[in-house]
Structure formats: structure tokens, C-alpha cells
Amino acid sequence: MRRGKGLRVFSGRAHPQLARDICAHMGIPLGEVTIEDFPDREINLKVECDVRGADVFVVQPTCPPVHDNLFELLSFIDCLRRASAENITAVIPYFGYARKDRKDEGRVPINAKLVANLITVAGATRVLAIDLHAAQIQGFFDIPVDHLFARPVLMEKVRELGADNPVIVSPDVGGTKLARAYAKELKAELAIVDKRRISGDRTVVENIVGQVEGRDVVLVDDMISTAGSITDAARIAKEKGAKKVYIVATHGVLCGNAVQRLDDCPAEVILLSDTIPHDDAKPVRLVEASVAPLLARAIDRIHRSESVSSLFEGGARDAADR
Ligand code: R5P
Questions:
Q1: What's the gap in Å between 228 CA and the centre of ligand 1?
Q2: Which CATH class for the 7-149+291-319 domain?
Q3: Quick check: CB of 228 below 6 Å from ligand 1?
Q4: CA–CA separation, 276 vs 48, rounded Å?
Q5: Most buried in the list 18, 47, 117, 272, measured by CB within 10 Å?
Q6: Which of 230, 240, 213, 222 minimizes the C-alpha distance to 265?
């Protein structure tokens, strides 16, 4: 890749390994910055190199601890704007609060829109994100958003894992579009778990619409948070006669009892991308697929003012349909 004169990539503290991997793919050094906490845990941040007129990218997923990571991103953007960077792209591999994207009852906030406003007001000129929970979140920003899909990266790994004549299963009706996109590219059949909500915080799964008996099942979702949905789906797939179950998701938020649930569920493999770091507690059968090369290519193209959607040539329309 070309080393742009004014190109700089920085990282907050949310996921420095991903930023280092991106820079390694691009053949550039990671920008120097000092980030510390004051005794009261306010953030003290200083960029240690000249960024005047530069095309700057800040890598920071807003994963847990969500508010620390989000504020650090805002502070970083503010710093770069005041240091006269020409362009500031917030590289947000995982965009937190994405599930709060509508006012579906009275007297509730739309936090996804609030976060978009904060990032814009801080001074970002562009956002680069992966698998936003809902594609329309792009419209919450009045700055350009480049929206990437982890699907090609994850599908390559699924093929490597050797799933035999798989059927792609969505853990709920809401995930059907994503599952269909996987099914189309893998030329596989599609099935959907029939999840029923019985109270505000309880759901039951009793059935699968589609054929899984004697087949390898690839369960796909955009994120695993508490892992309730996906492990229930894995269990019902096994009960209905699935041979092997593979769990695939872009964002492994893994909060609450998620790791224990994943360890206890009957899946062979838990395949996650590295949009969120999994350094501490992680599932025993975790396989990671890195989005670093994808982000490196996207950053390079943005810097050169080249098309980003062409990274998904062939599958681009399906991706946009999701
Ligand atoms: C829901 O709309 C998402 O796509 C995921 O299915 C959901 O967030 C997973 O949550 P959990 O892991 O807590 O069941």
C-alpha cells in the first residue's frame, strides 16, 4: 500500500492491538499519543506528533466500558481538531448503543442518534464502521459514513472450518436479512429460529422454521451480548437433529454470563471477528477472524479518495440490501 504523506492512524485504549494490526498491514507506524487517567479518572490525552493538515484516523470501538471508550474517542477527536488535522475519521469497528436506534415507546431516548451527534460535534469529518446493527444508523450522521461488512472475512473462516453442506440459521426473525446474505454467498439453505417473547426479559425458543436435521448448522448474528439468543438457538438446533453447530457473529460484546453460556452450549466453534478485544475471559472454543486487513484497505482507499464499496464487489448489492 502507498504510504500517504499526511496519513496518520491513532488508537484509543479500547483496542490498541487492532490498531497495531491495521498499521502493520498498511506498513505505517501507529501514531504516538499519551493517554492517562487523572486520579479522579478524567482522561488526560496528548497527541505526540504533528497532525496539522493531516488525514487522521482514530481507531476506537465503543465497546464496554462503553462510556469510558466513547468519551475517550470524543476527547481524541476534539484534540485532533484543535491540532488542525485536515480530516478526522472515527474508525468505530463496533458502534455501541446501536440497538437504541428508535423511539418505540413514550419517554425514551434515541441513544444511537445522541452518540452520532456527539461524534459529529466533537469534530469527526467521517465515520468508518463495521456491521452497524441497523444500516439506517448511517443516516444519524450528517457526515459521510463508510459502512463495511465483516461477512467476507467470517465466511472465509467458515469455509476453512469445513462445515459440510451447511444450513444458515438466524437466531430470530430480526436477523433473517443477515442470515440470507450469508446463505446466498455460501449457496446454502436458510432456516429461522422461532423465538417467542413471553415477558419483558424472557423469551422461549421451541421451533426452527426450516430443515436442520442431519445437517451442519451455521448460526449467524451481528452481535453476541449476553449470548442468550444464540445459545438458545444452538440448543434447539441440536434438539432438532443438527449434526454440528457453528456460531458466527461479528461483534462479541460478551457481557454478563455470555462466556459461561457459550462454553456450556453445544456449538463446536464460536467464530467472532476482532472488532472488540477478547483478551480477558473468552469462550474456550473461540476462533477469531481479524478485520484488520479489511480496515487497512478501507483506510487506504479513503485516504486516496477511492471507492470503498468496491471492496465488496460482487457481494456489494447484497450487503447494501441488509
Ligand atoms: C438483536 O437484535 C441482535 O441482533 C442480537 O441478536 C442480540 O443483541 C443478541 O443479544 P444477546 O446475546 O444478549 O441475546
A1: 8
A2: alpha beta
A3: yes
A4: 26
A5: 272
A6: 230
Q: Tell me: the pLDDT tens digits for 266-279? A: 999 999 999 999 98
63 neighbors 69 (Cβ within 8 angstroms): yes
Which of 95, 229, 247, 262 is the pocket-test mutation for ligand 1 (most atoms within 8 Å of CB)?
Answer: 229
Kindly give the distance from the C-alpha atom of residue 119 to the centroid of ligand 1, in angstroms, as a whole number. Answer: 24
Q: Which residues are catalytic?
A: 195
pLDDT at 319 (0 to 100): 41
The structural domains of the chain, with segments of one domain joined by +, span: 7-149+291-319, 151-289
Per-residue CA distances from 312 to 89, 129, 318 (Å): 20, 14, 9
151-289 classified as CATH 3.40.50.300: no
Going by alpha carbons, the residue nearest to atom 5 of ligand 1 is 223
DSSP string, 217-245: EEEEEEEESSSHHHHHHHHHHHHTT-S-E
User: Rounded mean pLDDT of 299-313?
Assistant: 94
3-class DSSP assignment, residue 247: strand
Same fold for the domain at 7-149+291-319 and the one at 151-289? yes
Ligand 1 center from residue 223 Cα (angstroms): 6
Q: Is 252 in the pocket of ligand 1 (CB under 6 A)?
A: no
Model confidence at 196, in pLDDT bands (50, 70, 90)? confident
